[in-house]
Amino acid sequence: MWSTYALLAALFASLTAILSKIGVKDVDPNLAVAIRVSFVLILVWGIALFSGAAKELRTVPAGSLGFLFLSAVATGLSWLFYLKALHLGDVSKVAVIDKLSVALTVILAVILLGEPVGIRTVAGVLLVTSGSLLLLAWPAPYGPWPNPSPQIAELSPRFMSCSWL
After folding, report:
1. What is the pLDDT of residue 46?
2. Number of domains in the chain
3. What H or E segment, with its residue span, contains residue 17?
4. Residue that terminates a domain, selected from 88, 122, 149
5. Average pLDDT, whole number, for the chain?
């Protein structure tokens, strides 16, 4: 079941990147984060109240609260830098760099949490990292993709407008 939630997280993370890029277009990135956090706050407290989980608030250990606070600081800083990057750059490049967090997370999990590391984990981290670097480096040394054939170029505006639906 955890993998279903992880896939849903990835789906919504990709939507977050696209929607944030559009939303931050004419807004200061710091203000955009404040607005975004306000909406998230309402949403997650609504879920906690509706599900009944909010009743357990008084029983949360102090250590857990401390780490949740530190996690909130990291999240806030991540969002501030992410939206600033989206404000200034292309979402396709910002998202690729942001996904290097996958490799960093695995490395930190091994170092700080003592999670096991095997050849498959090392290979995965190397593939994610090299894939990200490839996506970032492609335009510089090799230039953009060649122009499409006339048939594809003719279909492209129709496809993008979804008039064929």
Report:
1. 95
2. 2
3. helix 2-23
4. 88
5. 84
